[in-house]
Each structure stands twice: as structure tokens, then as C-alpha cells.
Amino acid sequence: MSVRHALLALLSEGPKYGLQLREEFEARTGEVWPLNVGQVYTTLQRLERDGLVESDDDAEPGPQKGFRITADGAEELAGWLRTPPDLASPPRDELVIKILIAVRLPGVDVHEVIQSHRRYLVELMQQWTRLKEEEGDLDLGLALVVDAELYRLDSVVRWLDTADGRLKRAALEPPAPANGPAPRIRRRTGARR
Amino acid sequence: MNAVLELRSVSKTYLDGADEVHALRAVDLTVEPGRMVAVMGPSGSGKSTLLTIAGALETPTAGEVVVAGRPLSAMSRDDKARLRRQSIGYVFQDFNLLPGLTAAENVALPLELDGRSAGKARAAGLRALEQLGLADRASRFPDQLSGGERQRVAIARAVVGERRLVLADEPTGALDSANGEAVMRLILNACKGGVGAVVVTHDAQLASWADRVVFIRDGRIVDRTAPRPGPDSLLAEEAAR
Q1: pLDDT tens digits for range A25-59
Q2: Across-strand partners of B70?
Q3: What is the mean pLDDT of chain A?
Q4: What pLDDT does residue B102 have?
Q5: Which of A36, A136, A155, B190 lies 20 to 30 Å from A107 when distance is taken between CA atoms?
Q6: The 3-state secondary structure of B1-27, one letter per residue
Q7: Cα A150 versus chain centre, distance
Q8: DSSP class of residue B169?
Q9: B74 contact partners, CB below 8 Å, separation of at least 6
Q10: What average pLDDT does this structure show over A163-192?
Q11: 0.80 surpassed by pTM
């Protein structure tokens, strides 16, 4: 989560004070990502150092100091919005690793391991869904965050379901003869921005 | 509080040629009034069989099914048919509306079959449609409705009258996410009005609307979610990171 770019976005609407930026950040993200005041000021100082925002020269540092976005800041923000996050290299996903280990480990029922993760994920999804059901007119920012969490967790459950089925079928079929070493997935390094 | 549905050690075995197929094995499940229970499992796990047995559409090979306090094993065919008309509402993936009847007539049909006068049945049907925001669609035929509207009519039909138990099999089937969510809200509202609901699905997003989720594999309930904590703990947990 880029606090830096979120602050630039808020300043692109007009000049604001530090405290105001913190409140607006929390409100826009459905209050799911709380931000402490120190984080806000440190980030603003760095933005100012990099020439992306300007502050009132005469004001003392503190809640009453106002900030404005610069032309470079606006350009930086526009570029960031359109830069895709790094999704190309397969992440070292903890859950995937656990299932891969459970498949090989003697005395471990991989289906039982899968189910324990599935139950936990569905319980989390129930909690997120409850936010939708209890607040009929959910704040737009929070509604978007809730949807994102539900789709993210849902995709993990779907992967577990698929893995469950694949392992069940594999147990019924004789193993295919090994055909040379398995291809390696090339992992890109240093691609994360 | 008395449960609206109890399955007590219910088993169902079919004969497939010479092979015995165990569709359900000693399933226990209780649904209280006002609660939604989701049954999650892959296809072939027995979840649809569970629903047809809970709905008195099929008889278990062993065990007992109790609907609204009445054991089905002690009931005659006629009694069961009456129970199905009066106390149980069904929602299917493909809506199952009768194409020759209007929305209002489809909703009123179970009441008419139960012996209410056409006028009273129609009035109750209109009320149910109104509650689901479909009053202006009452005289349309199913083929004049969108998919989402058809499923809402099917839900109105499932909750009309004094239904105690709503059974839904993949109720959001081919609907888009907004219409699917609307369908789940309607079932949830019916629960808030006091009915108990069982929703069978393989979809975790759908299941997460339920108070309780049970997981079925090879005809057996293998797991269930803990009682659901409120969302506050979720936000607090996020805040603590």
C-alpha cells in the first residue's frame, strides 16, 4: 500500500493540512488501513525533499502546516496509477508451500490440511460478508475493500478446491513415467517496484 | 427454540447396477428458526441429496428427518405433500417458474394448491412480490423478466404464506454478482423474519452469507465453521497490524 501516492492523490484535490490528510486517507480506505500521524509527516517530508509537494514556508511543522502538490507530484501520481503492480513472478505463497509439503509428508492427510485452511478462509469471508449485511449503505471505500478481500479469499478457496480434486484424482491414477526433469518456472528477481 | 429442520444420523444409499452408492452417511444437521446454514461441497459430495431429503422429496435409507417438529417417517404421503406446500419453500438454480403463469400466479400457486381461494392466494402472492420490490412485475410472464427478476420471483414463491423452512440449491446459479448478492440478501431477510434456510453451494462467497457453514465430502459432514464473530474483530485485527 503506497501511503506516498495516496497522499499525493489527496493533495491533487487541493492544498491540505497534515492532520486533514490522515483523516481523509482513513475515510477513503474504509478505515481498514489506519495510519499514524508520524507516518503522515515522515511521508510528507520525503515528498517535499523529492520536490513532489510544497509546504507553507513560514509555518512551523505540525498539524497547521499546509501542503500542495507540485507539477512533478501530479506527474508522479498519474504514472503510478497506471503502473501495474508486480504480478508476473509467482509469489512464494505460504499456503501453497504448506500444501506442497503436506503432499509429501508421511502420516499427513493432505485433504485434512486443505480442509482446515478452507474452513479458516470461509470463516474470514463470513466476517467480511457480515460487514456488507449489517451496513446497508456501506461507505463506498469500505464496500470496494470488502469486495476485494472477498474475491481474494475466494480465489484461495477455489485453488484449495482444485488442489483437493487434483490430489484425489492423482491418488486414483498410476503415476505417469517421469519424462526428464520437471520444467522450472523462471522467477524474476528485483522486479518489485 | 425448536429447530425447523433436524437431520438425525441420515443415510442414503442408491443402487447403481450392482454397486451400492452411499450418497449420505450418518449426517446430523440442525437448523434453528432465523438461521441460514450453508452446505458446501464439490459436485457429487451428496449436498443436493441432503437438500431433497430435508425437503421431504426423497426418503432416507436410515435415520430421521424432523421438519418443524414433525418426524417425516411417521407421515403419510398426503401429510408430506401438505407439509411441502405449507412449510417448505424451494429455490432452484434454474428458477423452475411455470412459463404459462404470470409472476403473481407463480407465487400464489402453492397457496392455491393448498386450498386457499384464488383471491386470497393472489393477494398473498402480491404482498410477497411487493416485499421483494417486484410489485410492478406482477403481471409479467417469466420470459418477460430478467434472470435476476425471475430468481426474485422464485424466492417470493419460496417464502409466501407461513413457510418455516427455505431450501435453496445453488440459488444464484447463472446470475451476475450484483443479482447473486441481491438473492442472498432476500434469503437472509426471510431468515430475519423467522424462517430457517439451508443453502447448498460450492461457492464460498455465497456460503459466507450463512450463519454457519458445514462442509460435506463423500456423503459425510467433515467440518463446520465456528460461530461467526462480528466484523469488529476483523477491523481491530487489521488495525493491529
Answers
A1: 888 776 667 788 888 889 999 999 999 999 886 66
A2: B67
A3: 84
A4: 93
A5: A155
A6: CCCCEEEEEEEEEEEECCEEEEEEEEE
A7: 12
A8: E
A9: none
A10: 71
A11: yes
User: Most B CBs within 10 Å: which of A25, A115, A126, as the mutation test of the B interface?
Assistant: A126
pLDDT of residue A132: 86
Computed from CA positions of residues B42, B226, B34, B138, in that sequence, does the dihedral angle turn out positive or negative? negative
List the CATH code of the domain at A3-82: 1.10.10.10
**The residue to which cell 411487493 is assigned:** B130
Residue A187 has pLDDT above 60, yes or no: no
The arrangement of strands across the sheet holding B220-224 comes to B88-91, B165-169, B196-201, B36-40, B212-217, B220-224
Cβ-Cβ pairs closer than 8 A, A with B, add up to: 75
Q: List the beta bridge partners of residue B193.
A: none
- Non-local (6+) Cβ contacts of A91 within 8 A are none
Nearest chain A CA: its distance from B155 CA (Å): 18
Question: What letter represents residue B228's amino acid?
Answer: R
| A contact set with B (CB within 8 A) | 31-34, 111, 115-116, 118-119, 121-134, 150-151, 153-154, 157-158, 161, 164-165
From the CB of residue B223, how many other CB atoms can be counted at a distance below 10 Å? 17
Which 3 state secondary structure label does DSSP give B209?
coil
| Regions of chain B with pLDDT less than 50 | 237-241
- CB-based contact A118 B225, cutoff 8 Å: no
Q: Of A89, A76, A107, A98, nearest to A186 (Cα)?
A: A89
Residue extents of the structural domains in chain A:
3-82, 94-172
What pLDDT was estimated at residue A183?
A: 65
> Which CATH superfamily does the domain covering B5-239 fall into?
P-loop containing nucleotide triphosphate hydrolases (3.40.50.300)
A62-78 pLDDT, tens digit each: 667 889 999 999 999 99
Mode of pairing for the β-strands spanning A53-55 and A66-69: antiparallel
Helix (H) / strand (E) element for A110: namely helix A110-134
